[in-house]
Design goal:
alpha+beta, four-stranded antiparallel sheet, 206 residues
Length: 206
């Protein structure tokens, strides 16, 4: 699986022009960077695009994106406005050759009931058990973890109010099966990926 890492920088001017106010508005901008894909019946294929809002930097608001397709950055370059900067690179396969990685993700820990209802998990112990169960068949184990920033994420999608309970989970993981590990990274962890949740940010542990 070829994964692409993309950095999207939105200047203050771009944020005003694009009406960036919440995860839904960021979602729209991120998805516009990528070509739509359709099956033989003309139905749009689901996307595997993940993103995380890294907040304001000196140079603007930084959005990090992970995808299995390359964004259409030429369209951005050809645009008459210059308040957006996009850089993208394929992630070398050799990046995934290590055994240990540091990781961080903002997740939406929930329990899915048989009725289909999703019940949020809002305590550290429960979240720790949730993430361990999520990675159980994903080709890696978590050997160190820290859980903090347990808080609700509230925004509107049209006339509907959406509330997602989130937590930051970080630490060190050990790879046991490279192929399944890469698939898990490309897929993301848990629910809410359209709203900037579930993307595993990795760095090689020295």
């Amino acid at each position: 699986m070829q994964l692409h890492a993309t950095q999207l920088i939105l200047t203050p001017m771009a944020q005003v022009r694009l009406k960036i106010t919440d995860p839904y508005s960021i979602h729209r901008v991120v998805m516009d960077l990528f070509p739509r894909r359709y099956d033989d019946q003309g139905m749009e294929l689901p996307s595997s695009i993940q993103w995380v809002d890294c907040g304001e930097r000196i140079f603007g608001r930084e959005i990090r994106i992970l995808s299995n397709v390359s964004p259409n950055i030429q369209e951005v370059k050809n645009s008459a406005v210059d308040d957006i900067r996009v850089t993208t690179n394929p992630i070398p396969e050799s990046f995934f050759d290590k055994e240990y990685y540091r990781f961080s993700l903002i997740a939406n820990p929930v329990i899915c009931k048989l009725s289909g209802k999703r019940v949020p998990i809002m305590d550290e112990l429960g979240i720790g058990k949730w993430i361990d169960s999520k990675v159980e068949k994903s080709g890696f184990v978590i050997i160190e973890k820290e859980i903090d920033k347990i808080r609700p994420l509230i925004f509107n999608k049209g006339k509907n109010k959406i509330t997602l309970h989130t937590a930051r989970i970080s630490g060190v993981l050990k790879v046991q099966d490279k192929e399944r590990f890469v698939e898990a990274v490309g897929r993301g962890i848990g629910k809410g990926r359209a709203w900037g949740l579930g993307l595993m940010q990795l760095s090689i542990k020295c």
